[in-house]
Amino acid sequence: MSKSTNQESISNHKIEKYRHLYVIIEHFEGQVIPVSLEMLGEARRLMDEFNSKYNSTEKVVAVVLGNNVRKLCDDLVTYGADSVIYADHEELKYPRNDIDTKVIVQIANDAKIMKIISPEYENTFVKPRYMFFAADNIGRHLSSTVLAELDSGLASDINKLVISDLDIRHEHKTKGQSIRYEKILEMYRPDFSGFLWTTILCLDNKNPEILREYHPQGCSIIPGAFRPIEKDNLRKGTIVEYSPNIDQELKIKILNRKVIKRTIDYETCKIVVSFGRGIKDNPEQNIKLIEEFAHLLGAEIGITLPLSKKPYQVSQNLDSKYMIADRVIGTSGSKITPTLYVAVGLSGAVQHVAGMKESEMVISINTDENSPIIDESDIFIKGRMEEVVPILIEQIKKQMSSISVRSS
Amino acid sequence: MLNVGVIIKLEPDFSEGNVSYNSDGTLNRAETKNILGPHSAIACNAAFYCKVKYEARISIGTMGPPIAESALKQAQVLTDAEELNLYSDRLFAGADTLATAEVLKNGIGKMFGENKIDIVFSGHRASDGETGQTGPQTAWKLGYTFLGNVIGFDIDLGRNVVIAKRLISLQGMDIIIEEIESSLPVFITIDPSYRSIFNTVSQRLAANKFRKEGTKRSEEYRQFLRVFDSKKLDLDPKRVGLPGSPTIVYRVEKIPRAKTNRKTEVIDPSNPNTLSPLIAKIIQIVRGE
Q1: Best mutation target, B262, B275, B289, to test chain A (most A CBs within 10 A)
Q2: Structurally, how many domains does chain B consist of?
Q3: Cα of A116 to nearest chain B Cα, Å
Q4: Do residues A200 and A282 both lie within one domain?
């Protein structure tokens, strides 16, 4: 035994029951969804640091549910998983909250798997230490029900994670005493405005009156927030098949499943024009103006998060076309990399900037030179959008026609 | 008789003129009005559809301070609810989603004199908290089948099942519309794109009648209101509010501005000389040059 492990076992008499970081993988039509690889990447970085700091051998464990999913598992290892636990069953072909929750909980509570993936903790393992889910239509609900069943805490929509030891003094958790908590996952969550970061912790109650252990520490992670690690075909990992217990009557039946092509495709877009609360003086007219401008450029239209909350009364047509979550650019929407990004009347909250900062060229139109968007702009046109956009439209039309006259 | 429950929330009003932001871009909570949240309103519309189409009884519940009554009143206008329930206790303050779900579970259990609720609706997520966790966690604690992202539904009363359409949109993937069937009871969170449609004349007449009745009832909403504290809900104080929350808010900070490598040129749009090269550049990009 190395010196520091020895010290750890002397200073910390309690036996650790919670080990490893479990990442719940999502896939679609035989393809792993990008956020799953992003989660694995962040998990890898966190656990490498964790293991060297705490001199331990805790793992990144990917969990996959589905039908014919064995073929996905090797890839998960190359993207950072130490172990992959997969459950293969006809009934798991498509995501269903009820059955998926039960199977994931079975896996999380199964200490016998440790014999294969980490024999050193076989006799002490009770539950995972940390658990990651995707903050999307599937993972958001799955994380909620899994953590409800495991009776532990969950933070949603996370875009930064740190593991640290913290001295906590809390009225309820510690009964006002300062107590050291080890290996705590600091979960950073941008708020709805995009200007505030809230750090959420999931902590055991050490107050003797309400004594209770809360593990795993769970979170759902915003797609696009983290980068996958470089694929390494030489990475080795253990792949374990899990036979789930699916004897209960299944309550949800899938009758029909239709796949619809996405109508808004930012990935193939060269130019994106986005607008924010700067349209407020005349929302209806200003959106139409932006429509005209975008049409002229052959651009797709994006919005900021506050606009998806429908703060303005506009005609039904514009409302259902533009004021929708699918158009949000930023950490809670799409992350895009167009050749040209035009930011019209938007201030540039951090969570918005995260979605557009990789654009090749950025032009912003804004009245306020103190808006954070100025830092992300190559060109900052100072003025009201009502005045600037028509000038741009006019000038572009003029130059376009003169160029085409010359070339003809 | 179909018994329908709706879980709603009083939230900041993000509409222009009502919302107030601080100079640093954060929400000014003191100056911002509170209303029935927009996602809660959509859940109310789904319940109202059940009333018109299946003659359902509706019970609305919310956890919050006494002022949350106003959200119940607004919800009654939308649903013509027979019953309004406020789950209110100082002990509930500061609850995270798990501790909130604990209260809502017992609250739903008390709806309609403990008659079993067949369907519970809740919003997709709150505009301020935005976790989207409370609905599914409440469903799980109740032992109800959870259906999320539902964009449309109908009920087969003879077979005691709901047939629902749900929308699944995953990062970078095509959109899936799934038709699913589940036996009652179910807990449904309604997708923002849900619209209730009344196809027949008799449905439209019934809808009008119930709307009028709902407005009238809401004028005297207190007659329909029941207030529950932790005792009345048979709750263990250790499982609610701050003591019952696994998570805590440890820190709130301003998100630092990201570092940037761009050199910004500020342009005065009224000067055609500065604008001209920019226009040329834009046209170049448009033409893919």
Answers
A1: B262
A2: 1
A3: 31
A4: no
